Amino acid sequence: MIHRNAPLTPTGRLRLARCVVEEGWPLRQAAERFQVSHTTAARWASRYRQRGEAGLYDRSSRPRHCPGQTPPATEAQVVRMRREHRIGPLRLAARTGPAASTCHRILARCGMPPLAALDRATGEPVRRYERSRPGELVHIDVKKLGRIPDGGGHKVHGRADSPNKDRRHGKGYACLHTALDDHSRLAYTENLPDEKAPTCAAFLRRATAWFARHGITIERVLTDNAWAYTQKTWKTTCHDLGIRPRYTRPWRPQTNGKVERFHRTLLEEWAYQRPYTSETERQAAFPGWLDWYNHHRPHTGIKGQTPASRVTNLPEQHS
């Protein structure tokens, strides 16, 4: 590829070379005529004498000999261990000998995708999908979160014990039920006391009403195979609401990965974002965070847009 600031294209080089070789121009005169240096004019004239027009194209900068190149056997070992053990360049370097940067270049040269782009169970590239319109598919899942005792938990006091493990006197766990739209990533979350079938069914009714107020009609819901989602209560509720229930494959949480990733964001940016002195204080901060997530937070999974911006008929857009 010719540099964008190169003074001579192959056509210009041919003209310069012919002036010198065929018409007998002095090198300095040709260099001045074509606005290049004396050495540049000499180079193209010499290549034209040796190889004709074919010598006027850029040559590869790749060296003819690479004494320090990694042996093919070592490269094959790096690729084999990556496929068998699914480990990164740093651990590959410790097992095979080359530097981590060398292992990285070997993997890139062989077309091996990053570990983050692979399914952990099978090692195959992750197949990503996105529904074409809001409401076509809504992901539903529950995240259990330990409640904070009054006065603060271990993040405030540094205690090693966990009051949530004491079933008689502990604070227990909150169950965060989330419904997240696949296309827009618009999320609706409630803090409920358990994850029983009637609780999940009632949450679905409220979530359906919430999405309807935002102009979204739920067509399908995707859940895992938890007990509550396989009971008649859940299936009857879906039927009454005109929703088709769908389930992930057993032991494949990646299928419901969008809501799983939302829960991770929720923990990082709200639940564990700062030390809270009580569960009441933490729960009081949640509505504001969820509103910020839906209306103001750029979402990297949808090219920096906000979830609300992908719902074109969403009323009362926040500015």
List the main descriptive attributes of the protein structure presented here.
five-stranded mixed sheet; 5 strands; elongated; single chain; 319 residues; 11 helices; Nucleotidyltransferase, domain 5
Descriptive account of the structure:
The model has no long low-confidence stretch (mean pLDDT 87). The protein is of the alpha/beta class and 319 residues long. It has eleven helices and five strands; from the N terminus they run ααααααβαββαβαβαα. The chain has three domains: 10-56; 72-117; 138-310, Ribonuclease H-like superfamily/Ribonuclease H (Nucleotidyltransferase, domain 5). α2 crosses α3 (38-51), α5 packs across α6 and α8 (197-213) runs parallel beside α9. A hairpin with a 5-residue loop joins β2 (173-181) and β3. 40% of the residues lie in helices and 10% in strands. The protein is elongated. 24% of the residues are buried. Strands 3-2-1-4-5 form a five-stranded mixed sheet, with helices on both faces.
